[in-house]
Amino acid sequence: MSEEPVVEPETGPPAPVLETREPVPEPVATRAAFEDAVARLAAGTGPVAIDAERASGYRYSARAYLVQLRRAGAGTVLVDPIGLGGMAALGEALQDAEWVLHAASQDLPCLAEEGMHPGTLFDTELAGRLLGMPRVGLQAMVLDLLGYHLEKGYSAADWSTRPLPEPWLRYAALDVEVLVELRDALEQRLADAGKLEWAREEFAALATPRAPLVRAEPWRRTSGLHRVRKRRQLAVVRELWTTRDEVARDRDIAPGRVLPDAAIVEAALASPRSVEELVALPLFGGRGTRRRAGQWAGAVRRALALDEDALPSAGAPLDGPPPARAWADRDPAAADRLTFARTAMGAIAAEHSMPVENLLTPDTVRRLAWDPPVPLTVEAVAEFARAHGAREWQVGLTAAALTDALSRADALGRVPED
């Protein structure tokens, strides 16, 4: 009599983690509760996991509306910073601890706004990039390295909502529950790959305070601006963008919820001369838009009345070389250098299994190819890279290869034609 075949149980994806290890704590919202939380976290041990929730797409400000922390011996703490008047005391209490964040560059500005500045940090997303991991979102990395399936259902929620719903708080608490465990797994992989010192240089650069980026003409980032060709129409975009920005800042509402970019571009192309003509445009028919129709029409009229010499230039002012697509016509030798440099960078990135943009910023490579140092030496290229923010590990990997690539491109340009 033959035996029945053994049927292996089917294994599917791991079930989502929906519950925290401890009860979800109430957000800390008073100075007394905050002082208790500071003492508890300061008495904890090891790295501290930190995350922050903003209200991007809902509010003008990029401030934190919830800060989540977790540390061994202290558990999870959720802080509502809105009425606290700053969190500098917490930052000072944790100054000697390593801060573990995911995509730290997104959260550090809003934490700094609350008075929190890391001494040292570990960025799990950046670690994943240096390791060449194909997916570096928190949910994907936790699944790939730890086998947990985190839910991400509230990442785009309006975190300025008060009171915050309990499911949102549970989601926020779960984000920091696994960060230190993820950090440990990544540190081991970095060490095994010989990249741990590279990562430490990157993390130190992230932790270094820096002035916020101020764009010279932020209105030029209006979506759809490429459709606007005439200077007078660009002036309409600029005036509408500036008026919208003032309204959005005063009301602390995301600019796109005050007036969509598409409406700004539509008004610029049509250049209506009255409120009636403006509200006749399809994107200005909504109730909220019509309520401020006088403001929008006034902005358009101001732009249309400008003298010619007050109009914006047709193109954005350049801070650096022109777009690479124009190099072949404007400077063929520079175009050759860029091609050779990009090829060299691609080879190094492939050898070390990481995205090429983490090896050296594309902007640095473009600037180097457009205006290389003279004489062209490894030392000069290394100093050029350092001057543009490259870390020593990046300089060590790329300076010689870039010097060789640029030299070969210049030699190619000197070969006489047959």
Automatic annotation (TrEMBL):
Positions of the HRDC domain: 230-310
Superkingdom field: Bacteria
Membrane-crossing residue ranges in chain numbering: none
GO biological process: nucleobase-containing compound metabolic process
Region (Disordered): 1-22
Coiled-coil annotated residue ranges, if any: none
Classification via SMART domains: 35EXOc (SM00474), HRDC (SM00341)
One protein family per Pfam: DNA_pol_A_exo1
Alphabetized Gene3D superfamilies for the sequence: HRDC domain, Ribonuclease H-like superfamily/Ribonuclease H
A single GO molecular function term of this UniProt record: 3'-5' exonuclease activity
Protein name, entry field: Ribonuclease D
Natural source organism: Motilibacter peucedani
